[in-house]
Design a protein that fits this description.
The structure is a single chain. The chain is mainly alpha-helical. It has 13 helices and 5 strands. It has a 3-stranded antiparallel sheet with strand order 3-4-5. A two-stranded antiparallel ribbon has the order 1-2. Helix 4 packs across helix 8 and helix 8 runs antiparallel to helix 9.
Length: 268
């Protein structure tokens, strides 16, 4: 008989049997160590002390899951679109792992019923569900290893809730999204043309960079200035998402401009 059958019998008498069965419906298998998933579903607004002086919530697992999700989706997209260039692959991956998509999938999986948060009425606004999904992926990785996590993402997330072919064709205005972010945090946004050259077929190629408060945030190339701007904006959004130190540098540079250091008086 299937080992999962005997495990289900044993778990029927477990004090956390309801949690195990709920996770089984999402994962397709019983977890080995449920504590990883409990932590993944604990939002920072409900942080708990773990007895060692370290606060326990899902932020660390979110960091891990975010990196693994990016790697697995990159692998899926790379293998599916064998003849597409780097820009296309990057755009497609970004569409799959964007916050709104992860929020929706997290709800579809049922994580909204399991997340512990004091901000329950603001799930969508604060991307609590999408963040919890990334933390959940981090928990799967720690509990089951990379291969099982790859299968979970590919079958239970991508295949179940995303039409990659349709999504790949959908135009996403990264420049507009970056502008929204800059307006929200009062960040100066500038695009600069770095270089203009032609490829082997004599097609014009444009290379542009995007600056946030004077800091280089991304570089993009394309067959038009618009396309190069989109690529640069996409790279900048990825950097904003993954590099908190960079975001802090941008915001701090803005404060320096508002409060410039006193200058030495000119000598006469």
């Amino acid at each position: 008989m299937d080992n999962s059958f005997f495990k289900s019998i044993r778990l029927f008498f477990h004090p956390k049997k309801e949690s195990y069965f709920a996770l089984k419906r999402i994962l397709g298998f019983y977890p080995n160590d449920i504590s990883f998933y409990e932590e993944a579903l604990l939002h920072k607004s409900s942080t708990k002390e773990n007895g060692t002086g370290i606060n326990r919530n899902n932020e660390r697992l979110e960091f891990l899951g975010d990196a693994i999700l990016d790697a697995v989706v990159a692998d899926i997209v790379f293998k599916k679109f064998k003849n597409q260039n780097e820009g296309f692959l990057t755009n497609t991956r970004s569409k799959i792992v964007k916050r709104e998509t992860l929020d929706r999938i997290s709800g579809n999986l049922g994580l909204n019923k399991l997340v512990i948060s004091s901000q329950r009425t603001h799930f969508q606004k604060n991307h609590i569900l999408g963040n919890a999904l990334e933390a959940f992926i981090g928990a799967v990785y720690l509990d089951q290893g990379y291969q099982k996590t790859h299968e979970f993402i590919e079958k239970k997330i991508v295949a179940a809730y995303i039409n990659i072919d349709t999504l790949a064709k959908k135009e996403v205005n990264f420049k507009s999204k970056l502008l929204e972010w800059c307006q929200k945090f009062r960040v100066q946004l500038d695009f600069q043309l770095l270089e203009n050259f032609v490829d082997r077929e004599n097609n014009p190629i444009f290379e542009s960079q995007v600056l946030l408060n004077g800091c280089v945030a991304g570089v993009g190339t394309g067959y038009s200035k618009k396309e190069s701007h989109q690529q640069a904006a996409c790279q900048a959004l990825d950097k904003i998402k993954s590099d908190k130190n960079f975001v802090q540098e941008i915001l701090n540079s803005d404060k320096k401009e508002e409060n410039p250091e006193p200058q030495e008086p000119d000598s006469y």
